[in-house]
Amino acid sequence: MTSKKATVLVAGSWGTALAAVLADNNYDVTLWTRNEQQANEINHEHRNSKFLTDAVLPDLIRATTDMAEAVTGAELVLFAAPSSAMRAVARQAAPYIDEATLCIHATKGFESESLKRMTTVLAEELACDPNRLVVLSGPSHAEEVVRRQPTTVVVASASQEAAERAQDAFITPHFRVYTNTDVVGVEVAGAIKNIIALGAGLSDGLGFGDNAKAALLTRGLAEISRLGMAMGANPLTFSGLAGVGDLVVTCTSRHSRNWRAGSMLAEGLALDVVLDRMGMVVEGVRTTKAAHALSAQFGVVMPITEQLYKVLFENQSPRTAVEDLMGRGRTHEMEELSEDWGLHH
């Protein structure tokens, strides 16, 4: 039996899938959940049926509802809580985390009240150097990862040593991991692509076809890049796994919660009905509100985000939103691209 201990907070679909990757690398993995029934199912049936219906989990994964038991002695703690719960989960875990613990998060969103990135939230709650925190992101549906289908992601940290420790922990024959130093870019890309995926679901739900979706992805990448660079990101990040890679997979797959939510909105369902039917967190909804505020804060034009904000929070019809996007003023593509990528002189 290995002496390596890893902890995953919390036991949703993504946390569970990444726990399985760690178990494949011979970690004893403790999944923390608030739900006693879920913990018992994981421990006795090796399943997490609410989030990953058909998956059988490795024997090295066990679950607990006791935070002290989960975190104490772990050499690696992975935070996979929804963005809205990240601060509370980190605060609860903080007393049991020491300086040697490698802290990673795999959450794609902003804190909606403060507009802070998840590494900032963790640094505040764990009272640690933000340079030793790592973010894991990229094109990666939990349903495929847990079945060991080929997947490639990126781990980003200001500390190359921390990034390489995370890379070593997660890399397997089925799960390839690159390192990156652009934490801001990786976090912004992972968060904002969920907005574009909502838009892709809307577009598909309205029956607009592949031409419309190709335009949406292309201009969506421009919005992601524009905000990211205003916040200090490296533009190259948006051409990588966390950028265009994650954008493509989230906007084109029925595994995507955000795509499904957008498609349901296109059917005319109210937002609260959609969220209730989904039964899981749809990060793109909160992220739209945060990105709308960030675009104003940084003076960045984000027309797709603006239209989705109106659909989600101002009762604009999805069809009107698309018409407004198509009816924007004429522009020169090279001039706009030059501004998007910081090449304007």
UniProtKB/TrEMBL annotation:
Identify the residues that bind sn-glycerol 3-phosphate: 108, 138, 140, 193, 246, 256-258
UniProt keywords (A-Z) are: Cytoplasm, Lipid biosynthesis, Lipid metabolism, NAD, NADP, Nucleotide-binding, Oxidoreductase, Phospholipid biosynthesis, Phospholipid metabolism, Signal
Record's InterPro entries? 6-PGluconate_DH-like_C_sf, 6PGD_dom2, G3P_DH_NAD-dep, G3P_DH_NAD-dep_C, G3P_DH_NAD-dep_N, NAD(P)-bd_dom_sf
Primary role = Catalyzes the reduction of the glycolytic intermediate dihydroxyacetone phosphate (DHAP) to sn-glycerol 3-phosphate (G3P), the key precursor for phospholipid synthesis.
What PANTHER family does its record include?
GLYCEROL-3-PHOSPHATE DEHYDROGENASE, GLYCEROL-3-PHOSPHATE DEHYDROGENASE [NAD(+)] 2, CHLOROPLASTIC
Top-level class of the enzyme under EC nomenclature = oxidoreductase
Query: What's the EC number here?
Result: 1.1.1.94
Primary localisation category:
cytoplasm
Q: Which GO terms describe its molecular function?
A: glycerol-3-phosphate dehydrogenase [NAD(P)+] activity
UniProt xrefs under SUPFAM superfamilies: 6-phosphogluconate dehydrogenase C-terminal domain-like, NAD(P)-binding Rossmann-fold domains
Do you know which Gene3D superfamilies this protein is assigned to? N-(1-d-carboxylethyl)-l-norvaline Dehydrogenase, domain 2 (1.10.1040.10), NAD(P)-binding Rossmann-like Domain (3.40.50.720)
Q: Which organism is it from?
A: Paenibacillus oenotherae
Provide the catalytic activity annotation: sn-glycerol 3-phosphate + NAD(+) = dihydroxyacetone phosphate + NADH + H(+); sn-glycerol 3-phosphate + NADP(+) = dihydroxyacetone phosphate + NADPH + H(+)
Q: Which pathway does it take part in?
A: Membrane lipid metabolism; glycerophospholipid metabolism
Name assigned to this protein: Glycerol-3-phosphate dehydrogenase [NAD(P)+]
Name of the gene encoding the protein in the UniProt record: gpsA
Q: Which residues form the Glycerol-3-phosphate dehydrogenase NAD-dependent N-terminal domain?
A: 6-162
Task: Identify the catalytic residues.
Answer: 193
What residue stretch is flagged as signal peptide?
1-19
Q: Which Pfam families match?
A: NAD_Gly3P_dh_C, NAD_Gly3P_dh_N
| Residue ranges constituting the Glycerol-3-phosphate dehydrogenase NAD-dependent C-terminal domain according to the UniProt record | 182-323
Residues that bind NADPH, according to the entry?
Answer: 13-14, 34, 108, 142, 257, 281, 283
Protein family (similarity comment) = Belongs to the NAD-dependent glycerol-3-phosphate dehydrogenase family.
The compartments listed are: Cytoplasm
